[in-house]
Amino acid sequence: EPFVADEYIERLAWRTPGGGSRGGEAFDPKRLLEEFVNHIQELQVMDERIQRKVEKLEQQCQKEAKEFAKKVQELQKSNQVAFQHFQELDEHISYVATKVCHLGDQLEGVNTPRQRAVEAQKLMKYFNEFLDGELKSDVFTNSEKIKEAADIIQKLHLIAQELPFDSLMDFCAYPLSFPGKYHDLECQLIQEFTSAQRRGEISRMREVAAVLLHFKGYSHCVDVYIKQCQEGAFLRNDVFEDAAILCQRVNKQVGEVFSNPETVLAKLIQNIFEVKLQSYVKDQLEEHRKSDAEQYLKNLYDLYTRTTNLSSKLMEFNLGTDKQTFLSKLIKSIFISYLENYIEVEIGYLKSRSAMILQRYYDSKNHQKRSIGTGGIQDLKERIRQRTNLPLGPSIDTHGETFLSQEVVVNLLQETKQAFERCHRLSDPSDLPKNAFRIFSMLVEFLCTEHIDYALETGLAGIPSSDSKNANLYFLDVVHQANTIFHLFDKQFNDHLMPLISSSPKLSECLQKKKDIIEQMEVKLDMGIDTLNCMIGQMKHILAAEQKKTDFKPEDENNVLIQYTNACVKVCGYVRKQVEKIRNSMDGKNVDTVLMELGVRFHRLIYEHLQQYSYSCMGGMLAICDVAEYRKCAKDFKIALVLQLFDTLHALCNLLVVAPDNLKQVCSGEQLANLDKNILHSFVQLRVDYRSARLARHFS
């Protein structure tokens, strides 16, 4: 523990009798001083003893340091001597090694020709046995030495290749023909390889394959291996999964057997594609190629997809340097005859399928699709008929049918979506934008032209004239459904067509075609907005049937119990329904545009209607109540201009009840100050008391 002087003194005093109050003893300073003096003397003696010991240890340490330094110097000298000896030994070893290498080169120079001579002598001996027609050597008669025999035959084969043609023909004419032995031995090796493969002896297969590597029949050995690998491998219905499993299994084994595993595996894959897969694809496609286009396209898409997926799995294996190109060529060799005319089959199927969907829908409605003019005189007659009361021809009665079907649209879009998916997968990258545009053109033709456009034309032809009573305005339903359908069309355009053409010149062509379709439909929708005339006509019929002259000039001025007239109630109810219908049928700025037009015409109708009657004081109050109700109805339009028009009309109606003395004051008010004086005068003239001299004088 660290030494603390204060604590040491305290402990010493505590142990000394009389040094404190321990045990009730009295404090004795003399005794404590004596103890301190004695203890100091003991410490001094201890210090001197320790100091002598330290000096002795220091002297000993210095002595040992000198001895150690001397010893280190001696070791350094010994090390220098040893290093010199090592250098001398290294030089001697280098000298000896040089002599040994030189001697080895000399021995090799002598031994190599000797070995070649011995080898040549053996080959000459074996060659003579073939010439004699009798093979006596153990290497040819012992079946266990087939590897050595193969090596000899291979060398003799190379020698025979160098013989002149005449000598080679003479040699082949001997009873024991060397080429025949070469062929027999080759067959034996292949048979041995086959047997080893069936027994699953990988090491024996590797040995035989290494021997056959230098024979012409090596490729036949590979073919046998590939053939036996496939025995029992394709027993299930899924040939693609079987092929993947087979290649996975062979990939693990082929490296243990052959010295060129990537070549053997590539040959196996080529055999699978060109034999198994091609046969399977042909069976699946040729069955439906001419009889069932839908099934043919589905099978083609499915088979091509599964083949490319298999190719992706095979990319994991080592098949050489350019395996991507290798596998692409194999896929192309299988499907090239089907992909060349794919888009023609696709367009033909899409056209017939779309036509059938539409025809089936119209048949379900018992509707015979008719030809409706879309330009020139027909448009002129239609527009004149809708804007006037001239009967230029009867409108078509659609019986409330819009001739638009969500089910039909979904079916057409689904067929086109599948066509886009097949196009993306099966088209050559260079032809993809062009093929996608052709599919899009089919969608435009059957969905936009044959279905939506036809429904709009039929809806336009079915709009009743403005003087029709109880006319049903189904065109707004057509507009609503057409708007919904076009949103679905636009979604498919963005989701499925745009990715296929986004980086090609066909993009601008598709966008222009879509723009033309939108503009064409907007023109027809604008023409159809003249259903507002029919709405105004309906309001006129309600007002003519329900409004009575006595409503605004009651016989008993003091007994009027109603707040507004029955005509006003029915007109407001009708208008509110039409406003709601317009909001449900359209979206965006179109809603405000149509409601503004309807609101302005509605105001004009009420303005002209009010000027047909004469108003008593109580009748004027009732007219004000009617206009207030009309103004409340106008608030549903949520159009500032319409509400302003009805506010002004309400202010004009005040002229029907105001006291003659206040007419000028009212006319100069904020809402009426900017109106033409003739308009103000026309309303004042509607008062029953207008002809009184007092009223005429005040107004003038």
UniProtKB/TrEMBL annotation:
Family the entry assigns: Belongs to the SEC10 family.
Matches recorded under InterPro entries: Sec10-like (IPR009976), Sec10_HB (IPR048627), Sec10_N (IPR048625)
Coiled-coil stretches noted in the UniProt entry, renumbered to this chain: 40-78
Domain Exocyst complex component Sec10-like alpha-helical bundle: 148-699
Gene name, Swiss-Prot/TrEMBL: EXOC5
Pfam family, one: Sec10_HB
Signal peptide range in chain numbering: none
Gene Ontology CC: one annotated term: exocyst
Keyword annotations of the record: Coiled coil, Exocytosis, Transport
Name of the protein in its database record: Exocyst complex component 5
Every Exocyst complex component Sec10 N-terminal domain range: 29-137
GO term, biological process aspect, one: Golgi to plasma membrane transport
